[in-house]
Amino acid sequence: MRIKITFEEIKGKEIKLPVHYNYIIQSFIYKNITDELSEFLHNKGFEFEKRKFKMFVFSRIFSFQIKFIKEEINFGNKIYFYISSPFNEFLSQFAENLLKKYEFEIYKNNLYLKELYVLSMPKFEKKMKIKMISPMTVYSTLQKGEKKKTYYYSPFEDEFKILIKENLRKKYQSFYNLEKEFDFSIKPEKVNKNLEKIIIYKGTVIKGWLGTYEIQSDEEIIKFAYDSGLGSKNSQGFGMFEICT
C-alpha cells in the first residue's frame, strides 16, 4: 500500500529543511505511530538471520518551488511525499494518526495536513520500467587492515544487481516467513553520474542513485518491491520507485 501526503505551511510561509533531511522525515514517521509499533519496528522489525527490516520506504520531498540556499532547501509553502509498505497495519496506523492531529511541526515548520490519500495500485507486469523517487543504494562492508570501509556500488557494476536481488529475497522471506526462489533483474536505462546522490544520515555518508531502470521478475515480487523498496536502507528514505507510464 502507498499513500501520498501533502502539507502546507499554516501561515503561507516558506517551508525550510536542511539539505540532508532523511532523518527528520524518518523521525516524523516514528512519532506518528504508537510507541508499541515504533518499538517493534525500531528494535525488532522483520528478522532474517542477523538482519532486521523495518519494511517501509519513503520518497524524497517534492514541491513546485525548490530553492537551495547554502545548507538549506526552501520548498515554498507546500510539500508532498510518498510512503509505502507491505505492512498495512503500520501504514494504516500512520495515516489515521495524521488525520487525527491535523497540525504538525517538522523541523521548525508549522504545517497542516492539506491532503492524504491512498494511491491506486498500478498494474504489475513481468517486465517494467521504473523511476526512482528516492535514491537506491547497495553496499558492502570491506575490511582494510584494522579498519572497515563501506563501498557503495553503482548500477553499472555486476554486484549492484546481485545485491539488489539478494536484499529483496531476504526482505520477502523475513516478511512472509517463507522461502521463495525467484529471478529478478535490474538494468539501468537513463542513469548517469549526475544521478548519483550523496546523503548524510546521522553523520554517515550514504551514496545512492536516481534514474530510470528496467526490472524483470514475477508480478508478485515486483509488487513487493514497490511496497517495500529496492536495495538497502529503505526506512531511511532510500529505494522507492514509481512505475513509468
Pick out its properties.
2 domains, alpha+beta, five-stranded antiparallel sheet, Alpha-Beta Plaits, 5 helices, 18 strands, 245 residues, single chain, four-stranded antiparallel sheet
Structure description:
The protein has 245 residues and is α+β, with helices and mostly antiparallel strands. It is built from five helices and 18 strands. The protein has a five-stranded antiparallel beta sheet. The protein has a four-stranded antiparallel beta sheet with strand order 14-17-11-18, covered by helices on one side. 31% of the residues are buried. The mean pLDDT is 95.
Compact description:
With 245 residues, this protein is of the alpha+beta class.
Please render the helix and strand layout as text.
Layout: E1 2-9, E2 16-18, H1 22-31, H2 35-44, E3 46-48, E4 51-53, E5 57-58, E6 67-69, E7 72-74, E8 78-84, H3 88-101, E9 103-106, E10 109-118, E11 127-132, E12 139-144, E13 147-152, H4 158-176, E14 185-190, E15 196-201, E16 204-209, E17 212-216, H5 219-228, E18 241-243
Distance between the termini: 19 Å
What does the overall shape look like?
A: globular
Helix content: 25-40%
Low-confidence stretches: none
Topology as a string of helices (H) and strands (E)? EEHHEEEEEEHEEEEEHEEEEHE
Beta content comes to 35-45%
